[in-house]
From TrEMBL:
Keywords: Nucleus, Ribonucleoprotein, Ribosome biogenesis, rRNA processing. GO terms for cellular component: 90S preribosome; nucleolus. This is rRNA biogenesis protein RRP36. Residues 61-96, 121-146 are annotated as: Disordered. Associates with 90S and pre-40S pre-ribosomal particles. It comes from the Eukaryota.
Length: 146
């Protein structure tokens, strides 16, 4: 019997994220139920070690959820850009594709707009300034070198 890995085998077909998300969308509801169950266990738990483990698990689940949302938004944004280009091509115009750096700039502008809407822009910018100041201090030569 020959063992084959579906990730690298052509017989399994090609990976399409949209089809994958539609096929396994039922997992989201299961994950939601598990998250609620962990939250209930966390409230009942008295053992500090167990409580810490449950808190770490809960944090990991929320981070995975946020990453999945962010990836889905990015995918939807790319699809909308592709649709716009197709419409322009149908009208007879030459398609224009954004560079990676321009996509990054648009993504950053969207992030700032979201932070401004939620009112967290100032705290984000202050943290960024502090990080940059620490980096600059590290790059400067120290006094004993002079």
């Amino acid at each position: 019997q020959v063992h084959r890995d579906p990730r690298f085998d052509d017989l399994s077909g090609e990976y399409n994220p949209e089809i994958f998300m539609k096929t396994y969308s039922f997992l989201d509801s299961i994950k939601k139920q598990e998250k609620e169950m962990i939250q209930k266990q966390l409230k009942k738990c008295r053992n500090m070690e167990q409580k810490e483990k449950l808190q770490q698990l809960l944090n990991r689940m929320t981070q995975q959820e946020q990453a999945q949302k962010k990836q889905q938004e990015r995918r939807e944004r790319e699809l909308s850009l592709k649709r716009q280009q197709r419409e322009l091509a149908k009208q007879g115009k030459k398609p224009f594709f954004l560079k990676k750096s321009e996509k990054r700039k648009l993504e950053l502008a969207e992030k700032y707009a979201e932070l401004k809407r939620s009112g967290k822009l100032e705290s984000f910018l202050s943290k960024k300034r502090k990080r940059n100041a620490i980096k600059d201090k590290r790059r400067l030569p120290s006094q004993k070198d002079l």
